[in-house]
Structure formats: C-alpha cells, structure tokens
Write a structure and sequence with these properties.
alpha+beta; Glycosyltransferase; 4-stranded antiparallel sheet; elongated
Length: about 575
C-alpha cells in the first residue's frame, strides 16, 4: 500500500498524519471496487472461505463494511457507487433482516453510514429508492438480536430511521429497548461484558461504547452523551494501556481480524470530547496500530485486507468470519470525521503509556492486571476474570501480550493430569501489582492462581485441590517469537529450567517452555518466576525478586526495588498484604 512520505516534524513516533490515513482509506476503497457485482449491491472477495451465513450474506457484508469506510472518507465520487448498490440491494438483491441474522449487523453499518452522509448520499436518492431502503432497514427495528453487543444494532438502525421520520414510534422503542438491555452488562469503571457472563475483549470499544456514544453524538442528546461519554472516557484510561510501543494491540479475544478497528474508541473519545487522552497521544496510539498492521501483511498484494492478524491466519477466525469480515477495520477510520485543523491532527504525537514508563495496572471490572515495560514497549495482560469458552484459547489462558498469541502447546497454562482446560473462572481480586482467580479443570480439579508483577518479572503461584495425590502438574510460560526472550524458573513444587524456543514464523505457534510437579498428600504451592522480554541481555529474574514459601498456602515475595508482600492462597480466596 503506497502512503505519503512520513512527516517527522509533526509525528516523531509514527510519522503518520491525516494524509496517511486518507491515503490508506483511498487505497482500500480502490482495491475493493473490482469485486463488486455489476449492480454494485454485493462485494464478493476472492478465496474459498465462507461464513456460516452463506455467500449472499457475505456479499452484503462486503457492501456494508466498505460503505462505512466510504462514509468516513466523505468522498462524493465513491459514494455514488454505493448509491447505485443501495438502489439495487433494497430492490430484491439483499437478504431480509430476520431474527438473529447477519444482515442485522450489516444494516447497522449501512444505517450509520447513511446518517453520516445524508446530504451526500441519502438526500440525492430517488424517493422510491428511499422508501424501499427505509422498509428494508425497518425490519431491523423488530428483529430479535442475540443477547450481546447485537442489541445495539437495532439502536443504530433506529437512530437513522428516526432522523428521517420512518416509523417514529417503533424507532424510539427500539432505541430505548437496546440501550436498556446493555445496562445489565455494564459492570462499572467504563467496562461492559459482551452479554451474560464475563466476556471482556475489544467489543467493549468497537461495539459497546461505539454505538451508544455515536448515537448520542449524532442525536445531539446531551443527557445520553453525558452518560455514555463519561463511561467511554473512563474506559479509555484503561484501554490506552492495551497498545504496545510498536502499535500492536494485545492479542486477546475474538474477531481479531478486525485489526485496527481497535482504534475506533480512541477516535471516538476525541470526536465526542470525552477522553482523558491528549490529542497527541490519541493520534500516536491510533496511528501506531494502523502502521503496525500495514507494515506486517494485513493488506495483500491485491490491496484487500486478509482474513488474519498480520497476514492470513485462520486461528483468529470464527464461524461468522466471511471474506469481507476484516472490513470492520473501517471503524478505525472514524478519526477522519475530525476536521483537518482539529488538534488530534495538528498536535505533535506524544508517547503512549507503554512507552512512557514501566507500569503494572490493576483493572478491576475484568479482573485483569496490565504489565508494560518501556524499554521494549511490551504489554502483557494477566487474565484472571475473562472467559468465553466458545472461543478458547483467546479467553482462557492466564496471560496474553502484544507480541505473542495463544500457542497450540498451551502457553500460560496450568495443566493438571494432562488437562489444560480452564473453565468457570472466578475472580478473587486485583490490586497494586497482583491479580488472582480460581478455576475448574475439565476433570473436576480446582486451581487457585495468583500472579505478582513488577517491571518485566512475574511471580506465579498455584494451589491445586480436588485431585488425587500423585496427579502430575505442568506449568507453562510464554511462547517466544523472534527477538523475544521467554523464561520460566522453578521456585517451589516444580522442577526444570524452561525457555521457550523461538518460532521463526513471526509468532509463537509451537512448543513452549514448561515446569513439572506432582500433587502431594496435602495441598501445596507450585511457584515459578516468569518473564517475557525483548531486551537483549537482561539481568536474571532472580535479581529482581526473592520468594519464600512459609506455609502450605503462604509465600512471601520480596521485590528488590519494591515492597515485601505476604500472599495467602486459602480455600477459594487469595489475600495479599504488605
């Protein structure tokens, strides 16, 4: 993808200015045009991958998600093509919006795009086309949504239909119903779970915050903007810490093929005026993510976004992933709605949290601990509260990072008697420098876990119960890719010296280092030191911390340049005091 030369005077960190974002949008839009059907109502991208919704729905997805990009770009010439496609689509080409059907998702993108470009697109359509389009979208007011972020799709459809006066009562009710339903999933401090349970991932940013805040902003509803905008601002305090110094988002959760859609809430904060981030920090984080993916194969030689993370990668796909699914990355271009003279475009870039200083940050709602080091820009997420077993292993591992991804060899796991499963994750607390949880294994065992972190070093302790004496235990650490160093050292109850071999395919996909132990007659502790770093020659982890096991469920952690902490892993609870 050809972009303008980087302007280092404005952007000392990424070199990306508004011109780079515009050029990237233009290149993506130009690349998809040859794959439109003759009537331009569907976009069928090459490849043999098809979602479970089928080829017709996938073609609609291609139209809707690239239309969203065109709407952010506000290019009248490009929008004319989409006007032709809309006219054909609502005249019998597109599948109807039905209960829990994929067209409901795409209707939200179409409605939002029409709302953003009303003078450029909607107002120029023939009256008959407008009537048919409103009728097609109108089915979205009444269609049942899946009980998750999908509840916001009828809200987004209704916002546009309300604006044009179509079914005003039904539109109002759809908005009220959807916004009321997401309240049951708001868990405070700017965080939602994506439906029942504890499903915490990027859907917080690119769905749960995006749609309510945009609706409030477009409707000029001060009450709703105060409510949802304040939540967004609080969320961004934590969210900004999920990006590495190289721009990479933490590799956790589902739908990772949306890639730089992770930048949408960053732009949204600036757009709505609800952000704790400075303009320069906002652009640094967002541009860093865009640059990260563009430089690592996200766009194929034909100019299309691939199904994957860097390049094509089936491991990050779900059954609903179709050939056009990656184009939800269009949400990342939300910043183009900001005028060229907005401070977010004119201010010099400022370093993000992972670049400024080492930090270990507790995030209470998901029960996460975010550990970052400024020397290498790495961010590590210690997961002791997020779970969605439908999408294992992107929820069930103990830790994730910006430079590794889940390995088939069960990185960051406790394997009890050959069983690596981690279900029923129950948060047991998070605090300054620590986080804890317990979970069940598939064979009925219970594992209580705590990790304490400082700089790049981690102390990991486990108490395994409800399994027979003599049950073998394996504890695994980080899988290391090129340029990374992964270490796992035994402290108590474990043996071996583990270092993960580097995988030369650009990420950890193979074996990981592991330590082994055996459950005794009485529950005891299994303790290890772990580290993932990109530093070339770091001091050994043992120079940073000493750990003494002082009882069957107690250890004392002494950080060389930090506190002395006593940790108790009792029956179903963890306490950390110092």
């Amino acid at each position: 993808m050809h972009l303008p030369a980087e302007d280092r005077t404005l952007s000392p960190h990424t070199g990306y200015t508004r011109a780079h974002w515009e050029a990237a949008a233009d290149a993506l839009l130009a690349a998809v045009e040859p794959y439109a059907t003759e009537d331009r109502a569907l976009y069928h991208f090459p490849g043999d991958h098809e979602s479970w919704s089928g080829r017709l729905s996938d073609g609609l997805e291609g139209y809707a998600r690239t239309l969203l990009l065109a709407a952010f770009r506000q290019d009248e010439t490009v929008l004319e093509r989409y006007a032709d496609g809309l006219a054909a689509g609502v005249s019998g080409v597109w599948p109807r919006i039905e209960d829990r059907s994929q067209p409901l998702v795409e209707a939200a993108s179409i409605a939002f795009a029409l709302r953003l470009t009303k003078p450029l697109l909607w107002d120029r359509l023939d009256e008959g086309v407008r009537q048919r389009a409103a009728a097609w979208l109108g089915d979205g007011l009444h269609a049942e949504a899946w009980p998750c972020n999908w509840e916001l799709f009828p809200v987004t459809v209704a916002g546009f239909l309300q604006e044009i006066g179509h079914e005003p009562d039904a539109s109002r009710k759809a908005i009220e119903r959807g916004l009321e339903r997401i309240e049951q999933w708001y868990v405070g401090h700017g965080w939602y779970t994506d439906g029942d349970g504890r499903k915490f991932d990027y859907y917080n940013g690119w769905a749960m915050h995006l749609y309510p805040v945009l609706h409030a902003w477009l409707a000029d509803d001060a009450r709703l903007l105060d409510l949802y905008g304040d939540r967004l601002s609080r969320h961004l305090e934590d969210y900004a810490r999920l990006f590495g110094g190289d721009g990479a988002p933490v590799h956790q959760g589902r739908s990772l093929t949306y890639r730089f859609a992770t930048t949408a809430p960053l732009w949204l904060g600036a757009l709505s005026g609800r952000t704790p981030l400075s303009p320069g920090e906002t652009r640094r984080l967002a541009s860093g993510a865009l640059k990260y993916f563009l430089e690592r194969g996200a766009v194929a030689s034909n100019g299309l976004l691939t199904l994957g993370w860097h390049g094509p990668d089936s491991r990050v796909l779900q059954g609903y992933s179709g050939p056009a699914s990656p184009y939800w990355a269009s949400k990342g271009f939300l910043g183009l709605l900001l005028p060229a003279d907005h401070p977010v475009w004119t201010a010099a870039e400022e370093p993000g949290p992972a670049e400024r200083s080492d930090a270990v940050t507790p995030i209470a709602p998901p029960n996460w601990l975010i550990q970052s080091t400024s020397s290498d820009g790495l961010v590590r997420l210690h997961n002791h509260g997020s779970e969605d077993v439908r999408y294992d292993p992107y929820y069930t591992r103990l830790a994730y990072s910006t430079v590794t991804w889940p390995s088939t060899s069960y990185d960051n796991s406790v394997i009890v008697g050959g069983d690596p499963s981690r279900t029923g994750i129950e948060p047991l607390g998070v605090g300054e420098g620590w986080v804890a949880s317990r979970h069940r294994t598939g064979s009925g065992g219970e594992v209580t876990s705590v990790v304490l972190a400082r700089s790049a070093v981690e102390v990991r302790a486990f108490r395994v119960t409800d399994v027979p004496e003599g049950t073998p235990i394996r504890v695994t650490g980080w899988a290391a890719g090129p340029g990374l160093r992964s270490e796992l050292l035994p402290v108590a109850g474990l043996s071996g010296v583990a270092a993960a071999p580097a995988d030369d395919d650009g990420g950890p996909t193979g074996a990981v280092g592991e330590l082994t132990g055996v459950v005794g007659a009485e529950p005891g502790l299994f303790v290890a030191l772990a580290r993932l770093t990109a530093e070339a020659d770091p001091a050994p982890p043992t120079s940073s911390v000493t750990v003494d096991v002082t009882g069957p469920d107690t250890l004392v952690v002494r950080w060389t340049e930090g506190p002395v902490l006593e940790v108790r892993l009792g029956a179903g609870q963890v306490t950390v005091s110092g």
